């Protein structure tokens, strides 16, 4: 089963590589046909050169951004699962909490970035907070959905056994909810990366977002493109790792449900 998961990941990587080659070829061709200036859209060769020349500061910046993203994403799982559990077991609180979460999710996160910086400072904590805010909602919604959709017959069976709520949660609700939760995780993880970069755009002294802002201010378009591509590739790798983890943990399930958001 693990070999099958690895084969699927390898197949996905190869497909992504073929698509990437096609995109680079189309990119180069469009620049040549329309004679686009390098300061507007640099050719792939110029971007590669900029990446090699800037690797000494782009790679450390990438690790900072990924750290912020992963920590924010992990916090969204911990807090989201706790909040989802409360809403599943308390319909009254659910009626209060869910509309509040919808309102928070509808708030432009860029508008909240200065507030987070005021509360958490200019360091990585405010970027972790931004990653958490963006990834939190899909985690909660899918967790609530998964916990709600537990098999009624299994729940009745555990009631007959006089099993407590904790045992029922661990043996029935949580395992049943994992496929739907992972759908939420796969939505939330890339959004967490976006949140970290947005936080770095607003105010920071490190990270990929900071390097993009610096390069943009000096019209170093090649570095801008290199940084954007680097974070996109890193996000894809993170997503692939999450998919592999899902396949390993949920090998007992033929497939997972569709995401709720």
UniProtKB/TrEMBL annotation:
Pfam families: BPD_transp_1
Gene3D superfamilies: MetI-like
Domain ABC transmembrane type-1, chain residue ranges per copy: 62-242
Classification of source organism: Bacteria, Bacillati, Actinomycetota, Actinomycetes, Propionibacteriales
CDD domains in alphabetical order: TM_PBP2
Protein location: Cell membrane
Ranges that cross the membrane: 12-34, 46-64, 70-89, 184-203, 223-245
Topology of the protein relative to the lipid bilayer: Multi-pass membrane protein
InterPro entries hit by this protein: MetI-like, MetI-like_sf
Family to which this protein belongs: Belongs to the binding-protein-dependent transport system permease family.
Predominant subcellular localization, coarse grouping: membrane
UniProt name for this protein: ABC transporter permease
SUPFAM superfamilies reported in the protein's UniProt record: MetI-like
Keywords carried by this UniProt record: Cell membrane, Membrane, Transmembrane, Transmembrane helix, Transport
